[in-house]
Specification:
There is one protein chain. By secondary structure, this protein is mainly α. It folds into two domains: 62 residues; 57 residues. The protein contains four helices and no strands. Helix 1 runs antiparallel to helix 2 and helix 3 runs antiparallel to helix 4. The longest helix is centred in the N-terminal third of the chain and has 25 residues. The protein starts with a helix and ends in a 7-residue tail after the last helix. The relative contact order is 0.10.
């Protein structure tokens, strides 16, 4: 149940981020509405909260679980790239967007494989 809730928040977070990026190109004035400023923070807070709940429920705090640390570090990078994407325009914005999506893919693969260096 908790895992499904976490996966739902992941999907909502991705839809929210991609939707806001598209909206920033089509109609950036809409992004100033309160709903577009508050909703992503609520979704992402619930996402991180459910992630921590999964870590606690799984007992992953005791032992060798470097993959969780890797996911958290890459998540911080994703957040930074997301802020960059929402504040910039042009080629730099799209390069940061691609990098942010690569972070999400990495986090997803590490979550499934539990292997930080799956690409080696």
């Amino acid at each position: 149940m908790l895992k499904n809730l976490h996966l739902t928040f992941i999907l909502l977070s991705l839809i929210s981020f991609i939707g806001r990026v598209i909206l920033s190109e089509i109609n950036p004035i809409l992004l100033k509405r309160k709903v577009f400023n508050i909703t992503p923070h609520i979704i992402n807070t619930l996402l991180i909260g459910s992630g921590f709940a999964l870590v606690i429920q799984g007992g992953w705090l005791s032992g060798e679980y470097g993959w969780i640390v890797a996911k958290l570090l890459v998540l911080i990078g994703y957040i930074g790239l997301g802020v960059f994407v929402m504040k910039r325009h042009g080629a730099a914005k799209w390069l940061a967007f691609i990098a942010a999506m690569a972070c999400i893919v990495y986090i997803g693969i590490v979550a499934v494989t539990k292997n930080v260096f799956f690409f080696i």
